[in-house]
Hints:
The chain is α+β, with helices and mostly antiparallel strands. It folds into three domains: 2-55, no CATH class; 70-153, Immunoglobulin-like (Sandwich), CATH 2.60.40; 160-326, Glucose Permease (Domain IIA). 17% of the residues lie in helices and 36% in strands.
Amino acid sequence: MNRKFWLIIMSSILLVLSSVGWMLGCQPASNSGVGEEEDVPLAYVLPDHVRLARHRPPRAAWEPTPPDPELQIDHAGSAVHPGGYFWLIVGPVEPEDRVGTSLKTPPVFKPFSDGLRALVPVSYHEPPQTLTFNVRVFREGDEVFSETVAVEVEPREFEVQHLQVTPQLESTRTQANFQSDRKYIEKARAETHADPQWEGPFLMPVEGRFTTEFGVIRFVNDVPVGRHSGLDIAAPTGTSVMAAEAGTVRLAQELIVSGKAVIIDHGLDLFTSYLHLDEILVDVGDTVERGELIGEVGSTGFSTGPHLHWTVSIGHTPINPWLVLDAPPFESD
């Protein structure tokens, strides 16, 4: 009787264990299989379909599709003229996205919020026209956005100026000397902050009398020599010259044609240049604040008298300085 009792008990236990294994969708490990599981008797192994369900699906299957980019465009001043500029904002974009345009000089796009933005100069050589170009966004090699942009460049008249200088002074204006200056200036403008360093309208860097406006068509000894790239402001030698806005000094040295020069990077490819100084009071790499003393007015290089030549440029293209004096970039009228 005892033997019969224990047989009933053992059968009941086996029945319960079998039912639990079936309910869990498990199966006993088999000693006839292959691989690591073969040496684990009495264990239960999850079925293949349960094992797969524990893994996250491929990234592309669960990540949301990024929204399509959009393009914003605006400009400084009431209209775009030769010597003016406009800006482009593209977004939203992914961190690896790349933006390209069909403009002759590619704009420098920098991160902004969830997109990218760039300042685009319009050369003072540009005639009145409808400036048409394409903006495209590429993601992992595929084009995900394309839009054709049309910017109206309105006409603008530039004054003509005739200078008479001595042969000795004129001899400084050789191609070799210009090329020497250009080498240092281009190097200084090759690096720019990703974020704007300015906080408002730019400051006139010196007090004095305006003698030559931006974009003037200049003749030296009756020979056409091109355009005037900035503002000339006459002042006595030694007059204080201030930084027009906050930024980093990228050049502080004496050049041949430009004389003693300082170039400040204000971010987003926007630079100001201060030429013909008598003294340079900053060094390359210095961080300067708006209104900080950076030099003194002089008459070094190709100069007919003490004055400051002040240039504002986007990349290597000069723009009208009055535009940033009236309002900072990305603030439209």
